[in-house]
Design brief:
alpha/beta; 156 residues; three-stranded mixed beta sheet; 38% helix; 5 helices; Rossmann fold
Length: 156
């Protein structure tokens, strides 16, 4: 499903915020909205764009494409396996492998993915952010000096 008008506006806002960022590579999920967002942002950045399957959203199986109104996103992620989808543990492992793959490219690397991918990162390392990540708002993740597995999130 392509970006709607809200998604296009959000991607253009991200493009404006990132226009002067020193991004050397963009890595993104192959799913259409993430890829389209990455392409819009790359209009300002102009760097290699790499598609990585491991950055795809969790596979929800029977719940795929349905409205997420009845449960929180975190609950849906952790229960995808009960609908025949991907287990959360397998998803986290896949995403971390995708992040490591992305970080092997020339940096700084911009990763364009999905809310579940950010939840997987939060599960793997301590991220000093509570609540959901707003769609298409660029942030920088940096390790906290002297703290094992702790990362800081700051807006760009």
């Amino acid at each position: 499903m392509p970006l709607n008008s809200t998604g296009i506006r959000q991607a253009r806002d991200a493009k404006s915020r990132l226009a002067r960022a020193p991004i050397a590579t963009i890595c993104c999920s192959p799913l259409s909205r993430a890829r389209q967002t990455a392409e819009i942002v790359n209009g300002a950045v102009g760097c290699p764009l790499v598609i990585l399957d491991k950055l795809k959203e969790i596979y929800f199986a029977a719940a795929e494409g349905k409205p997420l109104l009845s449960h929180s996103y975190d609950v849906l992620l952790r229960n995808a396996e009960s609908h025949g989808g991907e287990s959360f543990g397998v998803f986290v492992s896949r995403v971390i492998a995708g992040i490591n793959q992305a970080l092997a490219y020339p940096g700084p690397v911009l990763i364009v993915a999905h809310g579940g991918v950010f939840c997987a990162i939060q599960t793997h390392v301590r991220v000093d952010r509570d609540g959901d990540m707003t769609n298409c708002v660029p942030v920088r993740l940096e390790p906290v000096d002297g703290e094992d597995c702790a990362w800081r999130v700051s807006p760009i």
